[in-house]
Structure formats: C-alpha cells, structure tokens
Amino acid sequence: MTLSKASICLVVALGLSGCAAHSPDDVSIETTQQFAYRHDGPPALTLYTMVSNRSGSGAHSSIMINASQRVVFDPAGSVKHPAIAERGDVLYGITPQVADFYERAHARETYHVVIQRIEVSPEVAEMALRLAQDRGTVASAFCTNATSSLLSKLPGFEQIKPTFFPGNLQKQMSQVPGVTERKLFENDSDDKAEAIAAFKPEDARATSPSGEAHQGNK
Questions:
Q1: Which residues contact 204 (CB under 8 A, 6 or more apart)?
Q2: 194: enclosing H helix or E strand
Q3: Reduced to 3 DSSP states, what percent helix, strand and coil does the chain have, rounded to the nearest 5?
Q4: Strand ranges across the sheet with 44-52
Q5: What pLDDT digit, counting tens, does each position of 109-154 carry?
Q6: For range 190-202, the mean pLDDT
C-alpha cells in the first residue's frame, strides 16, 4: 500500500503493536525444507517494485534471494498458492516456473513490475537469506520498510536507507553499482486472484534445475 508522509507515524504505531513473529497459517520448518529449491545460477538479489500504471506510484516491494536456496521475501504480500510454502513472509520453492509466476501475478492492466537484479557474493546472499528468515511476519503496509531494512544491513548496500516508499527504494537500488533493471508489463485482469488461480502446481514442481525465470522485457 502506498503511504502518505502524514500517515507514517500512525502506521508505525499500529504496525509495532500488531506485528507477530509468525502467522498462524505458516507452514512448519520441515515443510519449508521439503519445498527448498536450490538454483544453480550465481548468488543474486532481485528487488521487485510494483508500480501503478495510472499514478506511477509504487505499491509494493519484495525481494528474491538466490543463496543456498532460492526464496522470495514477500513482506505483507498476497501471493498464496499450493505450489509455494510460506513461513514468516518467506516463500519457498522458487523454481524458475514459480519465479515467473510470481512476477506475472503482479503485472496486470493496472500495475507493472520493475525488476532490479544484482549478483552478490555467496556470503552476502546467505546473510540476506538469514535476515529474511529471522524477520518473521511483517505488518501490513510495512513491505518496503522491511525490504529496505534488510538490504541496508548487507555489505555493499550500506547506502540503502530504510524507507516506507517503494519508489524511493527503487531509486536507491538503481544507484547501487552492478544493478540491472527491466520492466514487466502485461494486460491481464486487475484481479490478481485470477492469475493465481490459473497457475498449475504440477507445472511448478516439474522443473529443470538449470532453468531461469523470464529475463526479457515485456
């Protein structure tokens, strides 16, 4: 959700009082281990920023982490599917098909996705993974704050300042040396639930380990 600056103090107060370590709907640690997917590409971080096509304002931030396993830290996110295991706002089982599905579920007639990727050392990727797993469930409207706070703790990302605004984080990320950027536009229905319902779990689990999510502009 996009916040006005006047709303931040109220949001902070509500968020701090309502944030729990884990959601009752979280899967067990054992289930996350069953869903774990190791991608053979280089260690990398991929920042997703969902942007309104009408206003140009950012609406959501999340980050894919390719470390000893590939996950998406989707704080206060809304993508739920049987092909994905979720614990503490970390999504497990991010095969190439699931990564592609995740991107496209957010790109629709009203929003596009800005995708910023940077390769990092294995140590930095693993640190990002641990920070995401340790963060726990994030309160509503804190998606960008949680994502930017995670990035700001990583070596090489000290210039990232925690923020509540997706567009601000996107701009900060664009100034990190080595970041590449692409944008994903699609004309799907504004109802994200339709894209989620259309995704078939069997397609996600039958994956080639050497595959990769869609890389071209669309």
A1: 83, 84, 93, 95, 97, 98, 101
A2: helix 192-198
A3: 35, 20, 45
A4: 85-87, 90-92, 70-73, 58-66, 44-52, 111-119, 180-184
A5: 889 999 999 999 999 999 999 999 999 999 988 999 999 999 999 9
A6: 58
